Amino acid sequence: MPRPQPPLPSRANRLFEARLLRSSLHPTELQLEPEAACLLVLAAGRVALESPAAAGQRRDGPEDEALSADAPRLAWLPPGAVRRIRLSAGARGALLRLGPVALARALPTGAMNTRLRGLLSQLRLLPLDPEVRDDMLRHLEVIDEESRAARGGTEVIVENLVSVLLVRLWRAAEVGGHSGALAPRSQLDRFVLLVARHGREHWSVGDYAGALGISRDRLGAVVRQATGLSPQGYLHREILADARDLLVNTPLQVAEIAFRLGFQDPAYFNRFFARHEKLSPGRFRRAARARQREDTTSFAAWP
């Protein structure tokens, strides 16, 4: 059973609150306040977002009534949109709570303000580039440190970092296909949610079009307009992002990763990965971990 964590506290005098999510041996749950917005950066593990309506219903399975996805992911949760966050064992990341005043102060001015206000009105669960993920986690660590100490200039630092995080969210939404006209965006949002649920079942493009009630050509036009990719290209990008994360951040064998991603034949997974990444999964893992060791050494050598 998931272990419930204390809710993010509701304090009238606190404009923001950051919480670093450490790896746990057990699944955990976080209760959210209905009046605050939250930004979640998931670095490892799996997340399920439970709406207030779903929270009151009986669930036959752990994710029947929740939107779920694997890391690396970026989630924006408008006030009241999500009642509970469920994290798998081993999940890591950070959660930022923003009261309405803090959010209003952090919003950039000009055209970006208009773009963000439209984006922030809806729940978002987006794929996240690993480099962007690491940058966002560093910003959230600074916000966490600033919130724990009474020092001059804290609000200035936090407001600017939150502004950067919001712009990062907007960029991730652009890359993930959450832009464009209202009607295509609605269809695309539903496609992205279906991919998050069924991507590892290797649905065909026709399966997704059928579930959306539109033609393959219409789905292709919507996805290509927003992302520059065909629907098949988008599906491959999502699978590859999950594969890279599992190779770099877990000790799973390549065959285990293949099965987890829905491949029945590990050899086919090897060929699929090598065709797109120009490296076999094993060589990719060794190269990525070598870069991680170099980065750790370079930081350790700083005065």
TrEMBL record:
Keywords: DNA-binding, Transcription, Transcription regulation. It comes from the Bacteria. Pfam families: HTH_18 (PF12833). InterPro entries: Homeodomain-like_sf, HTH_AraC. Residues 189-287 form the HTH araC/xylS-type domain. GO terms for molecular function: DNA-binding transcription factor activity; sequence-specific DNA binding. PROSITE patterns: HTH_ARAC_FAMILY_2. This is AraC family transcriptional regulator. It comes from Pseudooceanicola antarcticus. The lineage of its organism: Bacteria, Pseudomonadati, Pseudomonadota, Alphaproteobacteria, Rhodobacterales.
